[in-house]
Amino acid sequence: MKFTDSHIYYEILILFAIISIAEAFTGLYKSEKWSRNEWYINFAGLFLSSTITRPLSFLLSAYVLNYFFADYYNVFENVPLWAGVLITALLEDFTQYWWHRAAHTYPWLWKGHRVHHSAPEMSVFLTGRNSWIYLLLFPSRIVSTILIFLGFGQAFLIGYFFKALIGISAHSSVRWDEPLYKIKWLHPLMWVLERTISTPATHHAHHAATDADGIGVINGNYGNMFFIWDMLFGTAKITRQFSEHIGLEDYHEEPWYVQLGYPLFKSKDERSELFE
């Protein structure tokens, strides 16, 4: 199956639109925190992620695979679909966990990921906020191409849709999990769920401006689809609470092209992390 034969992006776009409309009904986008520059970042980031860096990464990876490893094309196409979905979802998300964790560990990579955390509030638009260098080097995209090349195309697309569903809803300002924690008979299910996948409570904590409130965990809760990685590698923090302050404590709102284009563009503000 060819990657371009799927309508997966249309399905994800519809999902994105539905959740963003739900956010609009809550009054999120009327907040004064959303300056014109922040909206430039949101839309330019989505365009950069979906229209430029993702296709470019796929085409380059596919060229290398077809040139050097042509004999392995579709070698796993007969693997049962359920097994393929599990394999591709776990491998792709596992790669992203470590890339995300590295972005909070190494200063040079953090500067490429920083724009993802500069947003003043949680929103579905955060899913596209990353710099060109962070996105272009994104190893999970290379892993995705390899999996499709090896014959996991259909399985990957199914898994990727559920990853998009979980990732978008975890970044959304719509706290769908909050009322569920209060339903007593759901307690066992929610206990398992919040340790398996990312939820608004666990991922909002990762986007908190500080961890001094006992809720935020700036260097933790890295999982995008699966939260099990955080549980396994000691980076999990579960409070079922939501921090009042989202974003960066020391944020000077650099121009959109600096945040998305660093290091090609650098801030003129000496206080900024993107100054040099």
Automatic annotation (TrEMBL):
One GO biological process term: lipid biosynthetic process
GO cellular component labels: membrane
Residue stretches spanning the membrane: 12-29, 41-69, 132-162
Localization annotation: Membrane
Molecular function as annotated in GO: iron ion binding; oxidoreductase activity
Alphabetic keyword roster: Membrane, Transmembrane, Transmembrane helix
Every Fatty acid hydroxylase domain range: 86-235
UniProt xrefs under InterPro entries: Fatty_acid_hydroxylase, Sterol_Desaturase_Related
Entry-linked Pfam families: FA_hydroxylase
Protein name in the entry: Sterol desaturase/sphingolipid hydroxylase, fatty acid hydroxylase superfamily
Region forming the signal peptide: none
Organism: Dyadobacter soli
Source species taxonomy: Bacteria, Pseudomonadati, Bacteroidota, Cytophagia, Cytophagales
